[in-house]
Specification:
Blueprint: H1 2-24, H2 32-41, H3 50-53, H4 64-81, E1 105-107, E2 116-119, E3 124-126, H5 128-141, H6 149-152, E4 160-161, E5 164-165, H7 166-200, H8 204-234, H9 238-277, H10 282-309, H11 314-331, H12 333-348, E6 356-359, E7 362-369, E8 373-378, E9 383-387, H13 388-393, E10 397-398, E11 405-413, H14 419-435, E12 445-451, E13 456-464, H15 469-490, H16 520-533
Helix pairs in contact: 4-5, 4-8, 4-9, 7-8, 8-9, 9-10, 14-15, 14-16
Length: 536
Amino acid sequence: MRKLIFLILLVPFFATHAQTDSTNQEYNISTPYHSVYNFLYYLQSDSYEPTKSLQSFKQPGMSDEEALEFANKFKQTLDGKGIFVYVDEFPKDPNYVDTLTNKARYVIVTEYPDIYFEKTKSGWVVSRRSLQAIESAHGELFPFGIDWLLKILPKIGTGEYLGLAVWQHVMLLIMILMSFIIHKIFSFIFEKLLLQYLSKKNYNTLATKFVKPVVKPLSIAIVIWLLSIFVPVLQLPIALAKWVVLILRAIFPLFITIVLYRFVNLMSFYFEKLAEKTASSLDDQLVPLIRKTIRAFVVIVGIFWILTNLNVDIIPLLTGLSIGGLAFALAAQDTIKNFFGSLMIFIDKPFQIGDWITSGDIDGTVEEVGFRSTRIRTFRNSVVYVPNGNLADSTIDNHGLRKYRRFFTQLALTYDTPTHLIQVFVDGLKQIVEKHPETRKDYYEVHMNDMADSSLNVMFYIFFEVPTWSDELRARHEVILEIIDLAKELGVNFAFPTQTLHVENLPGQATLSPEYNSSRDELEEKVKKFMGNSKS
């Protein structure tokens, strides 16, 4: 009887413990499907039972608190990035084997391939290696330890209004106010302080034309970057969070691209100042080309950055561009050839702006060097556009690079000119060369050179040290006038190719031949007197 009474008293005790064990076992992690469902379902606000959810993360020797912390971190990461887990796609086979790795594992989301379930004795749980990936992903999404806000903010209130909790509304309002304040602060720092500093340093053009256009998009980019950090703290509904994160990921590189695009103007301004310090004028033409190239590069990189942040697979796009680029290259061989010709011109620098060049039938002054062609102003004042590919492959005679400009002529004297007068005349010509300020003094040739049909020729071979063709013509003009004046002073007669029939002596007529009665000493004295009165 006593034993019966004892058994009856023990029934409620065993029933209570049996019910407790049954409650603790109301979770299922037998398959990847059930494990992910168990993890997500029991962390929802309307079915919140963390002791069951943590079973999908618990490792041998791990406490419930540690497992729950990993479960919460992974849930916060998924919600913060707006990643939707398609539970129905998970396999329901307890013996599932991944075909790629040939192991019993299943990746939870493609965004985090290192976080996966693996089969254990207790069922399908998140692998121990995945826990490190969860820790890393959570720290990356919530930098600077801002996840502590998730522990404080919910205490404000969890009641829902318009689909968001009270603390989420409060946090959203704070973020809007802080964005406005931060934008104003950065605008003040850049627009007021920086621009005023540049103005005081007499960089007004630099401040207003190049720095100011960069300020506004830069401050907006900074605000967007800060928003992308704090938006995950809001833990918005998945559908909303997905679009908010996507928009922020697209807008941030957009404004960074705008900043860099406008910053190129500042770089080109700096390059222009450097080009002004060089003697070559080709550098001045190179700056606009560099600016256009960098701008195109910035735009292309910005587009690919935006597409990547929008989760667009750019590999097929790049493949298509490569195939299209090959077709384009075949169709535009001449254009590409001219482009590389431009690069060769800028690298080798066979000429610069303002040089007089000759290349085949082309003869003129270089005005502009572009990506495709070079503009040359001919001496007929017409403009010739020469493809750079042709210039790069042809022989170029750059008259503009001449240090000295040659002047060669033959001074024809009459046959009746005495030798001593010719010698004094030649010596006077040499003194003209020595005295002129723009002639080369270390090399010139002035000699009696030829006995032609109708004249005795004196070779006059000199060089001018002048920068331009106009200066060369002016120097020639001055030297030729000096030669004529010297010949007039000495009584030297220039011959010309004519045939004259005359009779030397007629009764009562003076001879037609000129008389040379001056001695050499008298002639040399005349040269000294002439050179003393010479203007050059």
